[in-house]
């Protein structure tokens, strides 16, 4: 499967787009649509800037690794909405977090409703609930259940 335009829109909505590097809530240097990995072979640093075109390229090319990760982890068929929500979740938290989550275990065990409820357990950074993560997980859960 591949992420749909609705899935990309969800990621864009919650990541926002910053063309100048910034530190996210966890202190990680970030740029574009929440991108934290290398940009054209360079580590993201405080003085880095990119164009809107580069931000779009990073998102479109970068999301592929999250699609591949989700595809490898799934043991059951899913709807497009479920898939999009899972890719958004993995884009935000990493494929490893999804792979070790109770959310994935419940989904692969056939407990779709139980899996949906697990989204809301991922709303904190450093023990503190963040409004943005709460809203994102709520939107991912709704898409998952659509």
UniProtKB/TrEMBL annotation:
<keyword id="KW-0326">Glycosidase</keyword>
<dbReference type="InterPro" id="IPR023347">
    <property type="entry name" value="Lysozyme_dom_sf"/>
</dbReference>
<comment type="similarity">
    <text>Belongs to the glycosyl hydrolase 24 family.</text>
</comment>
<keyword id="KW-0378">Hydrolase</keyword>
<dbReference type="GO" id="GO:0042742">
    <property type="term" value="P:defense response to bacterium"/>
</dbReference>
<dbReference type="Pfam" id="PF00959">
    <property type="entry name" value="Phage_lysozyme"/>
</dbReference>
<keyword id="KW-1035">Host cytoplasm</keyword>
<dbReference type="InterPro" id="IPR034690">
    <property type="entry name" value="Endolysin_T4_type"/>
</dbReference>
<dbReference type="InterPro" id="IPR002196">
    <property type="entry name" value="Glyco_hydro_24"/>
</dbReference>
<dbReference type="GO" id="GO:0031640">
    <property type="term" value="P:killing of cells of another organism"/>
</dbReference>
<keyword id="KW-0081">Bacteriolytic enzyme</keyword>
<dbReference type="InterPro" id="IPR023346">
    <property type="entry name" value="Lysozyme-like_dom_sf"/>
</dbReference>
<dbReference type="GO" id="GO:0003796">
    <property type="term" value="F:lysozyme activity"/>
</dbReference>
<dbReference type="GO" id="GO:0016998">
    <property type="term" value="P:cell wall macromolecule catabolic process"/>
</dbReference>
<dbReference type="InterPro" id="IPR033907">
    <property type="entry name" value="Endolysin_autolysin"/>
</dbReference>
<keyword id="KW-0929">Antimicrobial</keyword>
<dbReference type="InterPro" id="IPR051018">
    <property type="entry name" value="Bacteriophage_GH24"/>
</dbReference>
<protein>
    <recommendedName>
        <fullName>Lysozyme</fullName>
        <ecNumber>3.2.1.17</ecNumber>
    </recommendedName>
</protein>
<dbReference type="GO" id="GO:0009253">
    <property type="term" value="P:peptidoglycan catabolic process"/>
</dbReference>
